[in-house]
Amino acid sequence: MPAPPAAPRLKLTVSPAAEKHLRAGHPWVYESSVRGQNRPGEAGELAVVYDKRDRFLAVGLFDPHSPLRLRVLHAGSPAKVDRAWWQARFDAAWVRRAALFGSDTDGYRVIGGESDGFPALVVDRYADTLVLKLYSVAWFPHLPLVLDLLSGAFPGLRVVLRLSRNIGALAEEVGLRDGQTLAGEPPAGPVIFRESGLRFEADVVRGQKTGFFLDQRENRRRVRDLSAGKRVLNAFSFSGGFSLYAAQGGASEVVSLDISQHALDSSERNFALNPQLTTPHRTVQADVFEWLTQGNEQFGLVILDPPSLARREAEREGAIRAYGKLARDGIRRLERGGLLLSASCSAHVSADEFWDAVRSAANRSGRPWREVARTQHAPDHHATFAEAEYLKAIYLQFED
């Protein structure tokens, strides 16, 4: 009996606005922009977008379960998306990073989602462990391919799967779960990795993001270079990344402030992993917003690195006000000649909006100040489109 004919390639037509965005290089097609498709599509299927004149626009991964209906892989001229194509794309992502890290750092981003041509997929390395985080079910059928690419570049390394919360239930239907080990032996506990000669633990199975905040590495290094002789307050300290770097840089004392005792315990363990750090370290469990307004303890360097304060567009205005308040209260805790580092990871708040909020707080303080630096993404976390530009920081030196 002859085999049934193969289904025709999934074909989408989109709105004129979406066509314009695709031509400009935007990597997403929203459900609301799809004007038609020739048949129902399966998660992870390759779908081709044609314009109103039936000319090729883009090809991408189809996701019928997400408002982001298509994650674009390639746009412009037609391309053959096969194993060799994926290998070339993976190699290009690795070449971008190969020269960034020396032997003192084995924690870094390997693949950065859309900005590396792997939409909705992130891979971070922590020493002997790769953490593969997925944000779309479109990748489920392609996991064997991804694991093959990773094993070719990193033979013998463990691979742990992390899943965005919104796809957990769909993952269970195909036998996948958050924290699952896909290659190698399951980790016995937190993975220990190195960054700039410091040792840190990463909870790759249950921790936030992929287990650690690798994206702040360059700001941590800058803090190290600015901390000598200063009392340092690390607010929203999480597992103490900035705290350890401040100690490495010769701070006279470091205070880690966080509402989570679990996070503070992790910071203590990270200090214990680095017995060469002799700077006194104190932890304070408290709500940062409240703690900054109580008491008058002064610091030479105040670091404000909160979690996202705007997880959706409707929260943007409130987040901008909150960043301004945090900066105002943080400035109040600065001693004469003190330095403020204020950071934001809220994608819905633009860099200019954030920087302006912090500058306005500095102006209202009545204290003379100058801007030392502004930073955004670390080179292994590069962003190639507006929605990916979430990280920004500003350094202000107060000169009174």
Automatic annotation (TrEMBL):
<dbReference type="InterPro" id="IPR036974">
    <property type="entry name" value="PUA_sf"/>
</dbReference>
<keyword id="KW-0489">Methyltransferase</keyword>
<dbReference type="Pfam" id="PF10672">
    <property type="entry name" value="Methyltrans_SAM"/>
</dbReference>
<keyword id="KW-0808">Transferase</keyword>
<dbReference type="Pfam" id="PF17785">
    <property type="entry name" value="PUA_3"/>
</dbReference>
<dbReference type="InterPro" id="IPR015947">
    <property type="entry name" value="PUA-like_sf"/>
</dbReference>
<dbReference type="InterPro" id="IPR041532">
    <property type="entry name" value="RlmI-like_PUA"/>
</dbReference>
<protein>
    <submittedName>
        <fullName>rRNA (Guanine-N2)-methyltransferase</fullName>
    </submittedName>
</protein>
<dbReference type="InterPro" id="IPR029063">
    <property type="entry name" value="SAM-dependent_MTases_sf"/>
</dbReference>
<feature type="domain" description="S-adenosylmethionine-dependent methyltransferase">
    <location>
        <begin position="182"/>
        <end position="343"/>
    </location>
</feature>
<feature type="domain" description="RlmI-like PUA">
    <location>
        <begin position="12"/>
        <end position="73"/>
    </location>
</feature>
<keyword id="KW-0949">S-adenosyl-L-methionine</keyword>
<dbReference type="InterPro" id="IPR019614">
    <property type="entry name" value="SAM-dep_methyl-trfase"/>
</dbReference>
